[in-house]
């Protein structure tokens, strides 16, 4: 009864009132990185946002902050961009001190991975002035039952300065270094690490000078899946497992030291780590389905063919969605893509450079300010799907 209920009122951005980005700024997960990206985009556009941290509120204090944090301003009106999904919205608004008698424009930045949305999110949507979805895929999943105003605002991902992508010289004789990334709290079966490892081993069955780094967080939360990953990695000494939260600079170094990022995901709401890899000048191989198609196409990456299959999530994160379907990427296609990049350094460079250029065009900081000032949005990124490897 005391939480905000903005209804359909249209509040434009007030330049003299606070602009707040609230999120889990001390976590290594995707929604925390998305909040940082929004904050950085707004500053790039000449605004002065405040970063209000919610990590402690949700027991997600894992890293030191890499940007200046501020307390929530005690003002009667302002603009809040809240990076928290529907189940966290009420608690976040309570913690931030916003109430029904305040006159804030409250924007919820929501994400979801399956093509069918959870029931009940419409109630929390009524506490928001509008909702920002990171991709059309997420909008189509969540919005059919929600009347709150909405926009599709892809995450901002800065490209590297200069003409050449950041590259770390190899000194250990490795010719191709691949990287796959997953967080146990985001469903390991959805990220499908086992398929990525199988693709790698099938691409390089001999003594090829290739390596695969599997970067995880919270792998130990799911001992059965952890055991499968460890056994798959133990079968090939070129597969290495890292299971911990990395500081941002170490995470960026890991991407910079890789040649290709591979994702055999079954579903993505956006795929921020894939966009970050492309912006860093790395070739990306990924399942050609779901939210990553907001910025990936046949010209800037290698999209894997797939078949849609019923959702079976042993982690339990997506329990109750047995009627939904997600993608099963073709193993042989992933192996072929890896092998082609290994055999053709020029192809590797061409894919990487195309990806880097396209991110600079598609995932710009201006999209946030267009939304804040109710300007006409940039045209949607041109999709070209159906690429086969």
Descriptive report:
- This protein folds into two domains: 19-152, Rossmann fold (3-Layer(aba) Sandwich); 176-362, Glycogen Phosphorylase B (Rossmann fold).
- Helix content is 31%, strand content 19%.
- It contains twelve helices and 14 strands.
- The chain has helices at 30-44, 86-96, 121-125, 136-142, 188-191, 193-203, 223-234, 248-256, 272-279, 331-343, 345-362, 366-372, and strands at residues 19-23, 50-53, 77-82, 103-109, 130-133, 149-152, 176-183, 210-217, 239-243, 260-263, 283-287, 302-304, 306-310, 325-329.
- The chain is globular and about 65 Å long.
Keyword list:
disordered C terminus, alpha/beta, Rossmann fold, 2 domains, six-stranded parallel beta sheet, 389 residues, 19% strand
> Regarding quaternary structure, how should these chains be classified?
single chain
Q: Pairing-aware structural class of the strands and helices?
A: alpha/beta
Query: Sheet with the most strands?
Result: 6 strands, parallel
Distance between the termini: 54 Å
Cα gyration radius (Å): 21 Å
Number of strands: 14
- Our count of helices gives 12
- Taking pLDDT < 50 over at least 5 consecutive residues as the criterion, the unreliable ranges are 162-166, 383-389
Q: Considering DSSP H and I runs of 4 or more, what fraction of the residues is helical?
A: 25-40%
Percent strand equals 15-25%
> Considering the protein shown, what is the CATH homologous superfamily of the largest domain?
Glycogen Phosphorylase B
Using the alpha-carbon principal axes, give the shape: globular
Arithmetic mean pLDDT: 90
- CATH class type of the largest domain: Alpha Beta
CATH architectural label of the largest domain: 3-Layer(aba) Sandwich
The arrangement of helices and strands along the chain is: EHEEHEHEHEEHHEHEHEHEEEEHHH
Can you list the strand order of the major beta sheet?
A: 2-1-3-4-5-6
CATH topology of the largest domain, what is it called? Rossmann fold
Q: Please give the domain count.
A: 2
């Amino acid at each position: 009864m005391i939480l905000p209920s903005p209804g359909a009122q249209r509040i434009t951005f007030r330049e003299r009132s606070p602009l707040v980005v609230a999120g889990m700024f001390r976590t290594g997960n995707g929604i925390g990185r998305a909040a940082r990206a929004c904050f950085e985009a707004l500053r790039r556009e000449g605004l002065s946002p405040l970063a209000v941290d919610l990590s402690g509120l949700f027991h997600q204090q894992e890293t030191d902050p890499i940007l200046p944090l501020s307390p929530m301003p005690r003002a009667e009106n302002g603009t809040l961009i809240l990076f928290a999904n529907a189940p966290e919205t009420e608690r976040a608004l309570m913690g931030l001190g916003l109430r029904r008698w305040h006159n804030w424009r409250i924007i919820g930045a929501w994400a979801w991975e399956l093509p069918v949305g959870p029931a009940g999110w419409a109630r929390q949507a009524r506490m928001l002035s509008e909702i920002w979805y990171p991709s059309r895929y997420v909008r189509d999943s969540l919005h059919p039952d929600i009347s709150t105003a909405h926009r599709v605002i892809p995450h901002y991902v800065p490209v590297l300065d200069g003409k050449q992508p950041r590259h770390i010289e190899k000194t250990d004789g490795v010719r191709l270094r691949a990287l796959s990334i997953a967080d146990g709290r985001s469903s390991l079966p959805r990220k499908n690490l086992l398929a990525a490892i199988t693709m790698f081993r099938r691409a390089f069955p001999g003594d090829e000078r290739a390596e695969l780094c599997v970067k995880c967080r919270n792998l130990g939360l799911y001992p059965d899946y952890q055991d499968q990953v460890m056994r798959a990695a133990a079968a090939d000494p070129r597969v290495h497992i890292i299971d911990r939260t990395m500081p941002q600079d170490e995470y960026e170094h890991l991407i910079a030291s890789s040649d290709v990022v591979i994702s055999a995901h079954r579903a993505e709401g956006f795929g921020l780590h894939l966009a970050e890899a492309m912006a860093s000048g790395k070739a990306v191989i990924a399942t050609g389905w779901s939210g990553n198609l907001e910025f990936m196409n046949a010209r800037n990456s290698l999209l894997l063919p797939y078949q849609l299959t019923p959702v079976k999530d042993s982690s339990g994160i997506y329990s109750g969605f047995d009627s939904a379907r997600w993608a099963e990427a073709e193993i042989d296609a992933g192996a072929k893509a890896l092998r082609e990049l290994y055999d053709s350094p020029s192809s590797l460079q061409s894919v990487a450079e195309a990806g880097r250029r396209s991110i600079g065009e598609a995932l710009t900081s201006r999209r946030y300010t267009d939304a804040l000032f109710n300007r006409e949005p940039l045209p949607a990124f041109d999709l070209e799907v159906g690429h086969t490897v």
